[in-house]
Structures
1.
Amino acid sequence: MEQSQVGYTTYNIILLQGAMYMNISLINAPVAHPSPHSRLAPPLGLAYIAAVLLEAGHEVSAVDYNVSGLHLQRVTRLVERDQPDIVGISAHTETYPNALKIAEIIKSLNPETKIVLGGPHPSILPREVLAEPAVDFIVIGEGEATMLELTETLQAGTGKFAEIKGLGYKDGSGTIRINERRPLLDPDQLPIPARELFPLEFYQDRFNVLAARGGCPFKCPFCSASFIWSGKRRARSPQNIMRELRFLMEHHGADYIFFSDDIFTLDQRWVNEIMAELTKLPYPLEWGCATRVDMVTPELLQRMAATGCRAIQYGVESGCQKILDSVKGIKKEQVLTAVTAATEVGIDIACSFMIPFPDDTAETIRETKEFMRQVAEAGAKILLSFTTPYPGTYFHQHADQLGLKILTNSWAEYDAKHNILETKYLSADHIDQLVGELVQDLGLKKATS
């Protein structure tokens, strides 16, 4: 590994003459409670890792159990068919129990197979995950370079795991070791994600999810992004993004792209450069993104619409100004202005809210309901979820101090579809009652579906 001129880490692929390359299976663990309203897309993190491993000459297969469903026979067939040397499993908090179940099945079938867990949950709780007998390694943070180095170390049989940044492992005595985190990779050095390894015909958004930047400077108490990214940010160059867009258009006929980044418009100069490049594409491309209401202006929204932007999701969270001041730092007036300015230029808007916050009362939730009504009347679709104290968030780390009672230790319930909180003012039953009334009064889809 070496430092690039822009301050990122680059990775080098070393092809060993006459080497026997490794056989790797990559698995996206499924949620325990799938929603009929969820829109599935290929898991980009695994697709990037697959592309790096393929570029190095290794054999790679991939499975997304969110598409196929998780059944014991399917895992058994995967092991028998692919006979992988290494299995990498991606796990969010709500998918971690299923990820562990998959690991245990594979280990029972072939104890020699090396099991690697990565994704947000292992990155945040590395020691808890590594304590599981079925887990041999974990990847902390970005996985491309770490997974490649681990694969080549296993291939060489040197056992020099202590030298691999971003890796967690058990040494010869069984002691858990967590190496220092790896600096962010230069995103322009990465190959185009190997989406083709996944069953693209089964995704609603099969070609149209693209990651343009990573990280978030805000430290919202309900979000683990700042923990996962260590407060750092990175962005791909507009030219590199266009390279992938042209590939998707030429090879897959893509005509719509959703940028999956948390705050797409964080750097407006960068956004303007991307929009300038979009006008050079061989045919028009429609696109969407997510951002904050205080990160757009009417002028920017007009330019976005002119270059094909058709959808934006704003994170609003609450309709009570006091709560917004404490958890988001935005004003209700900014929400209405951002919604109106977008809808006036033909951009579809969705605004996401969550309940409950630590200081929510019956009155503040009713206030949120009335603000949701205003936002809907301004032209936005309303998205509602339960506040979830994910590991790594301020809400999880300071629950007692905030008067939050976390009602379950079952990670599968940490999916924003189940209420797992009581607050100092509201019981779980009262929260469910208030949310039920809100959903019915506004004609929303049930929050828990």
Note: The chain has 17 helices and 19 strands.
2.
Amino acid sequence: MASSNKSQQFFHTSGATDSVWVHQDPVSNRPSFSKLGSDVETDVCIIGAGIAGISTAYELVNRGREVVLLEARQVLSGETGRTSGHLTNDLDDGYTEIAKKHGESGAMVAAESHAWARERVGEISKALGIECEYRKLPAYEISQYAAEDAKHDDELRELREEEAMQRKLGLEVTFDDKLTVRGWDGAIDQRGGLVVHNQATFHPTKYLNGVLKWLQKQPNFRCYGQTRVISVEEKGIEILGIGNKSVNVQTTDQHTVKCNNAVETTCVPLQKLSVIAEMEYMRTYCIAIRVPKGSVEDCLLYDQAEEYKYVRLTACDDKDDYLIVGGCDHKVGQEDTTTQSQQLEKWTRDRFTQAGRVDYRWSGQIFEPVDFMAFIGKNQGNDHIYIVTGDSGDGLTHGVLAGRLIADEIDGVENSWASVYSPKRLTSIAKSLPSMVAHDLQINTQYKRFLQSDISDIEDLGLGMGGVLNQVSHDT
């Protein structure tokens, strides 16, 4: 496998290089769906065939709903196929921070809902006979600093605070002053940390391919690929449940899906403001590096850096495993993107000296809500349009639990998680207003270059180059 792993599916993926998941599950293994060629009607139209869309389809089809699933490229061509495959309720943002925004009751909802999602993947893979490497394992949280650094002990104290909060919320968690990871044999000593038991991991595309193949056999399910949506609009009048509204989902080919409810599982919903202004947009990076089979402990591993590292294993071949190492996150459009995978490789080799060749390098997009919780439910100002966005680095479990939340809301079933995830929530967003305003101002400054010029004339450009020529004329 060439280390460049340049994607052979350039217009069928959200990145320029393939992720490690194609190693055992190539794109050719995925179910193929034809393009929508006419207007259709259905009960629920889901837009976006990643883990949120497929999970929502699965839950709704099982409840007897008629579902049409639309994908702009081919199924699993977006961010789901570019994750690192962690299934955990040991959440990125930490429960100490989540409780500051949502209270302990909101933090409890986060813990319970992500635990449900983790277990739900295991239940479904077993029920459908999907071999997807699903397994239970511990998650380790360690300091980003070496033991001799004074900041190391400071971070361990913070991890003890997180342990107390997680224990209060019912997680199986312990603290180990001597915690080490088998296979970490480099000179850098970061021992000690949090052990969160009963977490999980899997192969995301193997799992979702299996779910899709089951859905294909169901009479109340249809899926269309290469079908890009340009608008989702409610039609009709409905006041306090009286009246009749429907939703028109229009594609770029001018076909319409008329439905009772539409669900946008598109990472970013098709709208201009509101929840879009309530998120930060991050790029994250991953490498898959060979290690001798069995030489590194099978666990989930996280450090406490702002651009934190996250680590897990997946199968490679008879001789090697792949150590998947991710991190070096940064705000989109605000960093040089050429060095992150090299930084990850150096970090890995400094700690795991048996690490061999890097076979895969890729990146993905993360959507960070200002109050740490995803937006799942009825979109602001709508009665029959639902959204799923704001994965906050835990997109796999967020996508799975979204299936239950959306299905319950469409069915009129009360769900105790709903208010914490509601796109219409106000209290936790208000607490985050200063950081949200600062973030939005920072984004807007990035557009300054589009009001200026990088070049004075198109002739300044060489082959394959681009620039901004902002020539404003004033008629007098």
Note: Residues 132-200+280-369 form a domain with the D-Amino Acid Oxidase; Chain A, domain 2 fold (CATH 3.30.9.10).
3.
Amino acid sequence: MRQRTMMLLEGADRLINKLGRYLLVAVFAFCLLCLFKIQVIQGASWETPAFVLGSMGVLIGLFLLFKLSLLKLSDRQALLLLTVLALVFFSFWNFVFRPVPVSDYKVLLEGARDIVDGTFKSQAAQPDNYFRYYNFQIGYAYYLSLIMRLFGDRLLFFKIIEMLVMTATTLVLYKTFRLFCDVHRSVFGAGVFTLFPYVFIGVGIINNQHEGLLLEALAIYFILKRRSWPNLLIAAVCIAIAQVLRPTAVVVAAAIIVTLMIQTIQQKSRQRLLETAAFIVTCWGLGWITNKLFILSGVAPYGIKVGNPYFKFLIGLTGKGVSGKYTTSARKTQLYYDLKEYHFNYALYKQAAAEKLKNVLIHGVNLQDIMNRFTGFIGNVDNQYYLGGNEQFMNRHPVLISSLNFAGMVVYGGTVLGTFKRVITEKWVTSRTSYLLPAVVFGMFFFAYIFMETQARYRFELYYVLFLLAVPTIYGWLTTLQEKMFTLDSSKDSR
């Protein structure tokens, strides 16, 4: 019986490797095709100045960071260097761009002020209130209220904390690289991440993506670190807290669970199976306790878990909600108008939304619309800078914004290409967790967003795992390029 079980597990491992490899090749080939279609065939309207300045910025940045990475640094020196680089660069950009809260981020800060003032509880109970139908945003508003209690409501303090959070994310990325790379590659990867336009361009925006990514990055780090119960439980705690601030953390949690299950099969380990169960129980248990505490406190009378689960799928599959009306402001969104259609009777709305979703799935969806939307999600320019709120700056400096966007797309496309090169050369998916986990995280987000509402700025978590996957390959390309140039120079000198 034991021998038969082992044979089944070995067969399952081979099958997972084969299917996983084909699936990853298909996913990243699709991403490259999306980028090629939108940025090349359709011809994204890049003006010559943006093309030239963006290209020069990428080339100069890569050259300087590559040369910097060649220095012989200890881990402590590397962390100090990256900290200074991130803080100086993020501070400079904040000083230049001067973002102000708009849209949802303005509403979240207003909610935080109401929590501090003690007026939030009555508002959150009203059926037509933003924090009633988007109750999952209460966790982040509460986090902002804690900052407000400590430092006051000056925007400067929130921006400083956002910069510190993103600096910490850079350092976690470096430490994660160090688990499977040398100091040189780690400094290079973390440095490029710091100067990546789609990271720093939104660093002064009060955004739950920043805190969520830091906690998700920590969870990935502790899963990849030396296998131990404390590391596993710390990762579970990070995911549970991230889920309070940003619901998409559940995707990372699912990816970790899938990774642990694959390792259970690959290693034929009962211990790994127990660890998987412990991770699930810890995440679920902490989430349940946190939700109950919010309810008991009165801050979230209806909890902080997503209260309208069908809405995102309706938008993703049909482009509109049950009412057919579109967003007019941060507080009056498509979901607001859908609920208004049913007089804010949440039970009736959920029933209607579920029925419409069922009809869509039974009678078929418009695959052309879904493909156009998803292709745009993968291949379009990241739109997060629009949420900076400083329209005057963008109107005065269109060439700068276009150049940064072009540079961002070049780096993003480079990480996709580097990852594609890696997935077609890696023969075994399950043998190294440092490859398996980031790949599963990317795949989970990729397939989740096929069916859900998407915007290009939702790629934020994907950038992080793309760097984990692509940097070793990209650094290898640069090293080869340097060696060839050095050899060429030497041969000329000898002649």
Note: Residues 2-307+366-494 form one domain.
4.
Amino acid sequence: MLRRSALTLFTAAGLVMSTALTVPAVASTPATAAAYPTTSVKVSDGAGSYISGTLTWYNRSVDFTGTLKSVGCRRAWYSVFDGYANPLGARSSSTHCNTVTSVPATLPADVVGGGTYVGVCLDDANGKPVTSCGVYFRP
């Protein structure tokens, strides 16, 4: 029967561990930037008109991509605010009547970290809100 001393076993185990630690790891995929956070938006007036889309939150701006369905004449209005309710930037689409159309907008939010929340409103042809505005916070 072959017996090994504890020193021999520990030495062998140490060699295996040191070899495992020095063998290069398999190359991994390089890290990519995390996706920018998004928020879904839906504001409707109960009469068939609505704004629907997505807010994408960047460090110094917020993008809206989506559609406006107008029954009668409507327009989309957006405004971005900081954490103290100070307005940072606003945009409005043109007036659209009885149609479905794309209403993209880029809202400036030129403060460190960007905007905290966005108000999205469905307005009539004169720029008056026809329903309560939706308020959407940065995730």
Note: Residues 37 and 139 are 6 Å apart (CA to CA).
